[in-house]
Amino acid sequence: MDELEGLVERMRQDDRAAYEVLLDRFQPAVFRLAHRVTGNREDAWDVVQDVFLAVHTKRDELREVSRFRPWLYRMAYCRAVDMVRARGGRAAPAGDDFLASAAPASAGPTHVVEAAALTGEVGRALAALPERFREPLVLATHGDLTYEQIAGELGCPVGTVRSRIATARQLLRERLAAWFGVN
Amino acid sequence: MTSDPTGSGCEQMLELLSAGLDGALTFREREQVEAHAAVCESCRAEQARMSALEGELRRCEEPAPGELAANRARVLASLDREASRARGVAASRPRQGRRWWQMFLGGAWQPSMALALAVVLLAVVTVRRQGPAILPGAAGGVAAQAPSAESGLVLAGLPPPDEDGRAAAQSDREGVAMRLDAGAPGETTILWVMTNETK
Ligand SMILES: [Zn+2]
Asked: What is the pLDDT of residue B25?
């Protein structure tokens, strides 16, 4: 049992100090993932709060301490998606609406203004992905989970995770062809 | 296959390049990608484009230190509230089949030998359901607050009312016992507050 698993085990047995260490350690990563999905800081922080309260209330549901990170990030992802849905739509990428429709003037994002527009475009393209492609991609890129861990959480073979993530990236590439070029 | 720039190797490359971005290639697969990219210009270009996209995709908003501290405090405060609510519910459960007042007069409330315990019935307060003393609580129940502001006592975890709308709960805390008998809507609700007095 490594250090993290030891902490998780103590947390499961109601050790408040262990819970606080986990909170401090994983808050930033949960925030980044939540922000990627919700597209704004306020919602992302609400997700972080909900997720860490759920970590406490659902600690008995975590059967294996080694599954803590996949379990945590999956909860964060699902909560973030729920929040976006509850708000009645796709994620609104960070306050760049005035730039949103601006097509790139050149092949690459060479100016600051274009870079901001691109960030918004990537957020929108990600939000538009079908769920079965988006979830494994976000868990891999923002949860830093292995394909095996993602497959375990989603209950599908590793090969499926791998091909769905590749498809997700291809769909993003097509949607963002104006920025990243065409084949 | 790995040296064929126009064959099926290109098809396979999309998935391999993607997995490569996640560090999910085996040693053999990595070799395969390198060998193919070395001879296939279009896959080299694709690799560059995917890397650029990946940089954007992984770009994150960072949490500010102040936000982290504020959220930490918010989470821990919620947990504390949750914990005290849970304690309130536990205290209101009858222990070993005892009535609330038996618990109060003996057992858990037994004073130490040095202390004489005098039970003083402080107040019988009647309040109306829906009145200001009844607060909405968790899980469909209600919580009642002692009418006196300085007492600051909260009787939490009153279970949902029965068919007639009646409910009862009790709580004890540091020398004060409370019981709430909530009548059906429109009926009288009685809040009992009892203290022990030590000499
Ligand atoms: Zn090729």
From this structure: 96
CB contact under 8 Å between A166 and B14, yes or no, is yes
Distance between CA atoms of residues B174 and B193, nearest Å = 12
Kindly list the structural domains of chain A, giving each domain's residue range(s) and its CATH number in brackets, ordered by start: 1-90 (1.10.1740.10), 92-126 (no CATH), 128-183 (1.10.10.10)
Q: What is the DSSP letter of A59?
A: G
CA distance B131 to B124: 16
pTM for this model (two decimals):
0.65
The mean pLDDT of B16-21, rounded to a whole number, is 97
In angstroms, the CA A18 to CA A24 distance is 10
Tell me the C-alpha distance between A122 and A131, whole Å.
16
Contact between residue A136 and residue A165 where contact means Cβ atoms under 8 Å apart: yes
- Residues within 8 A of B (CB atoms), A 29-68 only: 31-32, 35-36, 41, 44-45, 48-49, 52-53, 56-57
